[in-house]
Amino acid sequence: MRYLPLTPADRAEMLAVIGAPDIDALFADVPPAARRPDLFDLPRKAGELEVERELAALAARNRPAGAGPFFCGAGAYRHHVPASVDHLIQRSEFLTSYTPYQPEIAQGTLQVLFEFQTQVAALTGLPVANASMYDGSTACAEAVMMAQRVTRRRKAVLSGGLHPHYAATTHTLAEAEGMQVERRLAAIDAEGDVALAIDADTACVVVQTPNVFGTATDVTKIAEAAHAAGALLIVVTTEAVAYGLLKSPGAMGADIAVAEGQSIGNPLTFGGPYVGLFSCREDLVRQMPGRVCGETVDAEGRRGFVLTLSTREQHIRREKATSNICTNSGLCALAFSIHMSLLGEVGLRRLAALNHSRAREAAAALATAGFEVLTPRYFNEIAVRVPDAVAAVEAALADGVVAGVPFARLDPASGLGDVLLIAATETTTSADIAALVRSLAR
Fold first, then answer.
1. Are 253 and 384 part of one and the same domain?
2. Are 80 and 427 in contact (CB under 8 A)?
3. 173-212 residue pLDDT tens
4. At 198, which helix (H) or strand (E)?
5. Of 121, 175, 242, 423, which has the maximum CB count within 10 A?
6. What pTM value is reported for the model?
7. Are 399 and 273 members of one domain?
8. Is the dihedral angle over the CA atoms 110, 116, 120, 121 positive or is it negative?
9. Is the C-alpha dihedral spanning 245, 164, 268, 260 positive or negative?
10. How far is it, in rounded angstroms, from Cα 151 to Cα 265?
11. Which domain-ending residue is among 290, 313, 339?
12. CA-based Rg of the chain, rounded to a whole angstrom?
């Protein structure tokens, strides 16, 4: 018998209670362009074997990132993930574990999260980190909300070098909170421009380094300008491997650091799930969203781990919560932590140096072929001027080359239709770079 929990009478009663005329009224906030007036053109029923064949044929139309030269970056990067990472995260004690509400039976999970926090704090150069966020973009938005609580101000200034998706996510949350968001114009070397917008109402300044165009910037002077006005500096990083080569956010005066941790331990997986990194100054810890695992001792003096802070809506009254995000990316955080443990500090620095070397090789080859490399200082990603970048990328696909991300795809209103973002990592070969140059030149 089919399980139908609600009868038509049940539905009618529920609609009457909330004052909605019909079910369609519940979707009034969804733009009409995003709705379908009818069912998808799919058969109403099919056998399991037929469904399996159909889905396999659809999946075969996708192209894996490793199938050939691949230069996409712009916030999600292809890196080599050791087989040991996947093996370890699939152990049953990790894969089936849930929120560690009872520390006496969740010591393994709690210790993993404690180690993860320790690694994030070391990478970002700030003393405290939480046990992860959904991803980099939501971590950025949460950092802006946190700055509002700390400073009791209502304005956030976003750099023109901030990833457009991060800016859009921040706008969405800030609008709901009644905050004013000022986003500077997109520019290759945009970070210094944000200081001009700081005033007495500014709660925070958000800068990204390396920014969405790949430009790496020492933001120490921006930190000084923000602090002089009583504002906080939030530093965003979308490529976590860059921590192995560049100055940390904490060393540049950041009050809050957020990042996308996908590059370490987590594959591209069609855009998610990923893992957001979040750290801050110690005096701000009680306004930090998410949860914090701490180290303690039990009644017999043995080392143990507990949830030290968990100021989320499922633990305290909703209006008192620092965040309404009710989970963390535990399994992705575990993958990050395992990969970091395998690399160690020396391994991460070598990996970062290799990434930079590959990007330098790509930049030199493109410049030799007559392309203008726009990014003045970079880690492993560059912006290149390519006439009609969208068409160029689509043409390159015919050569089996995924040539990068046209910036206009991220920010159609920017007017930068001739800017192509190209990322090179340790997975990029000299043959890949040669194929990219040949394809774009043609």
1. no
2. yes
3. 999 889 999 999 998 987 778 988 999 999 999 999 999 9
4. none
5. 423
6. 0.90
7. no
8. positive
9. positive
10. 35
11. 339
12. 24
